[in-house]
User: Which sequence fits this backbone?
């Protein structure tokens, strides 16, 4: 599974990254967590409002930080 957190490095982006890592750690799933901060790479995703969350190439959220429960749901949908 590939999980991408997309954003320029703002506080919300870093919070989302921390929550995603916690969910991956807590659930024990095998996932590659990628933090995209380079604006050229961010633009390629199609996400124009950060933070963004993509799982297996699918955009899950844009412009907000979802909670643990919601992120777990997103991950289970992609398994």
Assistant:
């Amino acid at each position: 599974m590939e999980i991408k957190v997309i954003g320029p490095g703002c506080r919300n982006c870093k919070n989302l990254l921390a929550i995603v890592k916690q969910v991956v750690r807590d659930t024990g799933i095998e996932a590659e967590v990628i933090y995209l901060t380079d604006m050229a790479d961010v633009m390629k995703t199609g996400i124009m409002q950060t933070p963004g969350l993509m799982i297996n190439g699918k955009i899950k959220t844009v412009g907000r930080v979802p909670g643990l429960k919601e992120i777990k749901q997103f991950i289970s949908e992609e398994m």
Summary: The first strand starts at residue 2 and ends at 6. Residues 58 and 78 are 9 Å apart (CA to CA). The mean pLDDT is 94.
